[in-house]
Structure formats: C-alpha cells, structure tokens
Write a structure and sequence with these properties.
The complex is a heterodimer of chains A (about 220) and B (about 200). Chain A is built from 9 helices and no strands. The radius of gyration of chain B is 17 Å and the shape is globular. The chains are: A mainly alpha (about 220), B alpha/beta (about 200). Chains A and B meet through α1 and α5 of A and β5 and α2 of B.
C-alpha cells in the first residue's frame, strides 16, 4: 500500500514538474497577496505578527485549493483518473498519493511565500526552529481535507466555485491554529508555538484518517 | 497455451446514474476467450464494461471477478505531463509487473519514436496505440476494452486483432464492446447484445 501511494505521488510530482501550472498559480497568488498586504493595511499593521501570519495562511489555504483542483483537472483529461482507479488498489492509493504530492508542492510554495513575507515585510523571527515546525505541520494538515472536498465535488460542473465554499469553513480551525502558532513563533512564545503545532498535527492525523476512509468509496 | 483463471460475472445488476436506469437487471458471465458486446450508441455497452470493472456502483445485484482487471476505456486514460513510456511504467509498477517489456510493446505498436514525448503532444491515434500497448505490458487475466478500434488506422486495427488473438491463446478473458468489426464474430466465444440497458446472449 505504501509503495503504491509513493508511486501515485511520484507520478503526480513528475507531471507537475512538466506542467507546473499548479505551483505557478499558487506561488503567483501568494506573492501577489503578500505584496498587496502591505499596500492595503499599511507597513506598520502588515508587520504585526498576527496580521502577517493570518494573511500568509489564508493565502496558503487558497493556494492549496488551487493546486489540488489543478491536480484533479489534469486527472480528468483523457480519463487518467479512471485509469488509476481501475487498477487493483488504485482507489486506496489515490488519496495518500495526492496528499503526499500536494504536501511536497505546498512546502515549496510555503517556503517561497514565507521568504517573501519575511523579506518584504521585514519580519523578525524570534524562534526560527519553532516557526519551521509550525509551518511544516500546518502545510501537512491542509491537503487532506481539501482533497476530500475536491473528490466529493469531482463530477459537478460548478466544482470550481463549490470547492472553496466546502473547504474553507472546515479549514477555519486549522487556519486559526496555524496563524496563532506562527505568530507565537515570530514573537518568541515557545510553549504557545509548540501547543498550536500539536493541534495542527492532530488535524493532519484526523483528516488523513477521514480521507483514507471516505475517498475510496466516494471516488465512484 | 497457458490457461489463466479469468472471468467475471454480473448477476441481476442494475446501474442508475443521474436518476436514469442505464443497466436493467443484467446477468452475464464472461470466461476465457473473446466476448463481444454489441449494441447501438447509448445502449449501455460502456456502462456494462464499467460495471464489470467495478467502476460504477450497482444499485442492485452482484459482481464477481476472478483475478485482476485491465480496463481500457474509450479514452486513452494516460496522464498528461507524462510520456507514453512513463505512463505505462507507472501502470506496470503499480501492478507489480515487469517493466522491461514496455519499450518493445510500444515499438510493436508503432509509437517507439514518440514514446518519450509527453502524451499531450501525441496524436489521438498515437495515444490510443500507447494505451492499447498495455494489453501486452500488464498481464491481467480479465481484459475489458471499450471501442478499442476508435482512432486506429488500418495497421493499428490489424495490430489490435493480433493482440486480441494472442490474449485468447494465453487463456485471458477478453471483453470488447464495439458496434462494428463483424470479423471478430468468427473468433468470439460469446456475444452479448445490449439495448436500452437490457442484455441478452446473442
């Protein structure tokens, strides 16, 4: 099973490398948002740890939705998804493979977006290691529930509009945890950062279990 | 001749999609050799194959399959962004099959020159040929093919006939849905006629 998940993830990453639409859209989106942030709210407010963290995670949530939808759009062309699902064990490997590949893509997007935020907003980082842990866990916690939502909306024509509507309310607790954790790491609250990181880990585990249970049945 | 345990059956299978009954209480069994599914456009041929492959939920009835299934739909089912070779390697690795035969199979199907080109840059016929090469690279005992002759030129049609003949000799169960190619009737072990979602042995 793990081998098959790795195969699906590798296939996805290889296709993304050749057609990097998802990464490019996500990076462009996050870069524009970071640039606009300081213009809209002013440099002083934009440098506030809570505000900068909130906008970073909001941008990353939208980037996750963009990248996930692009990934499934590619699968729907020429019925490639059906080719995967028709394989023995394909249904079970689909969710894990998609989540794994999206996590890799989002780590890249988060690294670029994070560096842009730090440089453009001139943010000081009190606890870099804690920040890294929070961002990594936050990124890992995002794709599982978005993949579930995209699969549920897969056969709907209006899925481009429906997926954000379905996903964002469910993502709110994760976004709050990621924002508070990031803010705590920026301002030097080690205990706070680790507590929120623990919560993000719990979200990642719960939604991964939910996805592994629901997606094989829902993909029909 | 190597005999594989191969075959599948549907018993009293009803498929409802978008509130429309597509298959009505269909009971069919397919075994080793070629089974043809015939019927006019929109009669339910594709849904019958998808039901055998387990790709559509049955509203009623049962499905039994012996061994792995290779389903080749009326679209190539290859992921864009990957080359033909990479797609076939993925399918073979996923099944735990040997990947060494892939280059030879793609060459035999006449797409050796373009096998390292991303599939979105191939013609419809080349994509179809690459997809059909899976018959030779994945040794699933049950082979389901939906309108496999579409997009093929005469040479491709002949190649596919040979491929089906070899699969028969290997004892694989082959189900081909098509409304044309009457010459296949001569080598078919069984025929299923389908119309308005109801199937009968023909």
């Amino acid at each position: 099973m793990i081998d098959r998940i790795a195969l699906v993830a590798a296939r996805e990453l290889r296709a993304e490398r050749r057609q990097p639409d998802g990464v490019v859209a996500a990076v462009t989106f996050i870069a524009v948002l970071v640039l606009l942030e300081s213009l809209v709210v002013g440099p002083q407010i934009a440098r506030d740890a809570d505000v900068a963290s909130a906008l970073f995670w909001l941008a990353l949530a939208f980037a996750t939705i963009l990248a996930t939808m692009r990934s499934f759009d590619r699968e729907l062309e020429d019925d490639a998804l059906e080719g995967l699902v028709a394989l023995p064990g394909g249904r079970d490997a689909l969710f894990g493979g998609k989540v794994l590949s999206l996590a890799v893509v989002l780590v890249l997007v988060a690294a670029i977006g994070g560096l842009l935020s730090l440089v453009l907003l001139d943010l000081a980082v009190a606890l870099p290691l804690h920040l890294l842990v929070v961002v990594l866990l936050g990124v890992v916690a995002l794709p599982p529930i978005v993949v579930v939502d995209v699969v549920l909306a897969l056969r709907l024509r209006a899925r481009a509009a429906l997926v954000p509507i379905l996903a964002l309310p469910v993502l709110v607790p994760q976004l709050v945890a990621a924002t508070r954790g990031t803010s705590a790491a920026l301002t030097g609250d080690a205990l706070g950062a680790l507590s929120w990181a623990g919560l993000l880990f719990a979200f990642a585990v719960v939604y991964t279990v939910v996805g592994l249970t629901i997606v094989p049945a829902a993909i029909e | 001749m190597r005999t594989l345990q191969s075959g599948a059956s549907l018993h009293d299978a009803t498929v409802v999609l978008d509130d429309r009954v597509i298959l009505r209480a269909v009971s069919v069994a397919v075994g080793p050799g070629l089974t043809l599914v015939r019927g006019p456009n929109g009669s339910g041929k594709t849904t019958l194959l998808r039901a055998l492959a387990g790709l559509v939920p049955l509203a009623r009835g049962d499905r039994h399959v012996f061994g792995d299934v290779l389903y080749i739909g009326h679209r190539p089912m290859l992921l864009r962004g990957l080359t033909a070779r990479e797609n076939l390697e993925f399918f073979a690795r996923f099944r735990g099959s040997d990947t060494r035969s892939i280059d030879g199979a793609l060459r035999a199907w006449g797409v050796g020159e373009v096998m390292d080109r991303p599939v979105e840059r191939l013609s419809a016929g080349e994509r179809r040929r690459a997809a059909l090469a899976r018959v030779e690279t994945e040794r699933a005992p049950l082979l389901l093919m939906d309108e496999p002759f579409a997009d093929l030129d005469d040479a491709g049609v002949n190649r596919l006939r040979q491929s089906i003949a070899h699969a028969r000799e290997d004892g694989r169960a082959i189900v081909v849905a098509t409304h044309a190619h009457p010459e296949l009737d001569e080598i078919a072990r069984a025929r299923i006629a389908i119309d308005y979602g109801a199937a009968t042995a023909a």
